[in-house]
Amino acid sequence: MRKAYKEIGLKKAFKFFLSPFKLAFLKLAIYPQLRAGFLRVLGAKIGKETIIHKVNFFNLYRTGFRGFLVGNRCFFGDECLFDLADKIIFEDDATLAERVTVLTHTNVGYKDHPLQKYFPALSLPVIFKRGCFVGSCSTILAGVTIGENSFVAAGSVVIEDVPDFHLVAGVPAKIVRKIK
Fold this sequence. Notes:
Elements: H1 2-27, H2 32-41, E1 45-46, E2 51-52, E3 56-58, E4 68-70, E5 75-76, E6 81-83, E7 88-90, E8 95-96, E9 101-102, E10 105-106, E11 122-123, E12 126-128, E13 133-134, E14 139-140, E15 145-146, E16 151-152, E17 157-158, E18 166-169, E19 174-178
Parallel strand pairs: 1-4, 2-5, 3-6, 4-7, 5-8, 6-9, 7-12, 8-13, 9-14, 12-15, 13-16, 14-17, 16-18
Antiparallel strand pairs: 10-11, 18-19
């Protein structure tokens, strides 16, 4: 435990300690409209007419809810999981179906972990452009941008940017066809 505190520092350790309380506060919001309001109170920017079902967050001690930026008329299905090690940005009309995971960082362990030299820690924002759709049980990795009006098929693992107006599918996700 001491090693973890030494690596992240006292300020982040305090934020980490507060995270469960913020999440418990959020879970009190049983209606999507209340949930959006609570997230605003906690520092997120949530646009008008956005619907947020029962979602979860981790790494709040990093960007906090200030790193969760959501446009107008977005929709997030039940059990989506958001990593707030870096920013997650949703433009207007972005839709995530149920159980979508959005990762903004990779870290194999402590700084002295033997894999660190091969897989150094990274933290990059994830961006969802206007009108995109991400199907159920998909995973979006750090640094990815989902293009405008693009469609990510259910169960896909997206490891690189998706161009505007494209359908991608698979593990890893590959372009299936252009939509427009």
